[in-house]
Amino acid sequence: MKKQQQSELLARLQQTSSKFMYLLEAFQIPSKADDTAIVSEYLLDDVTGVKRPLPKALPADEEERQARLEVMQNKITAKHLSRQRRVPAEGKTARKRELLKRNLKKSLRKANMIEHKTQQVKQEEADSKGKIDKLNTTKTFNAEGKIVFSKFQLDEHDVKKKGVDTDAKKLLRKHINDEKELRALKESGETEKYASIKNKRAWERATAKTEGHKLRDDPAALAKRIKKRKTQVKKSKQEWADRKQKLEHKKGQAQKKRAENIKGRVDQKKTKKMQKLAKKGRIIPGF
């Protein structure tokens, strides 16, 4: 088997070498590269490009170019000179002086502005005072001797009305006392005084009704109102007591629950501890 493989390889090598030799002969490639070999035969001819001559500058173009250059130079020199002028000759001291001058100018401007504004304000105040003085500032007073700020006073004898008493107990007590007084006068025989007081009170009631005031002199209505108020107070007291009781009950329930939870946690910890000890071999009753 080995001899057969060797023979096949030799046949392949011979075949490939014959192909290469054919190619070398076909392209006339020398078998050995000598230094004396002429290589130019195998290279292409160099095509050298013709150099174009540069266009000669005309005299007019040359003059224009020179003029442009001069303009550019003048601009550059002008910029340089302006920069040199800006920079003070004396250095830092000159700069400080310039800064001081600028600051002084600014402060003077501010001071002038403030003075101008103050003068304007003073002038406006003086004008307003003059206008106020010109106005007629006569004060008007009402019947109580207080200043009236409105332009029109509808009633000169307008006196502030006193508040109406609405206390039912007080009104009922007053009515009872008045009735007692009238009864005492009648029993004592002072009929004229009794009649005059009764007449006066009747007129007072009539005038109050005509003015639109609500009369609170009916003893039955006053007693009813007092009773109603008592029931309201009693009801509110009962509601408050019920509310307080509910809150106390709720608070007690919450405290009880909290105590139970704490006890449960303590018992749980204790049982866990006992179980661990029992596992380790300790003799504990119940575990």
From TrEMBL:
Molecular functions (GO terms): DNA binding; RNA binding
GO annotation, biological process: ribosomal large subunit biogenesis; ribosomal small subunit biogenesis
Biased composition (Basic residues): 224-235, 246-256, 270-287
GO cellular component: nucleolus
Region spans: Disordered: 204-287
Family annotation (Pfam families): SURF6
Subcellular location: Nucleus
The entry's keywords: Nucleus
InterPro entries: Rrp14/SURF6_C, SURF6
Compositionally biased intervals (Basic and acidic residues): 204-219, 236-245, 257-269
Domain (Ribosomal RNA-processing protein 14/surfeit locus protein 6 C-terminal): residue spans on this chain: 94-275
Taxonomy, superkingdom: Eukaryota
Similarity section: Belongs to the SURF6 family.
PANTHER family xref list: SURFEIT LOCUS PROTEIN 6
Protein name: Surfeit locus protein 6 homolog
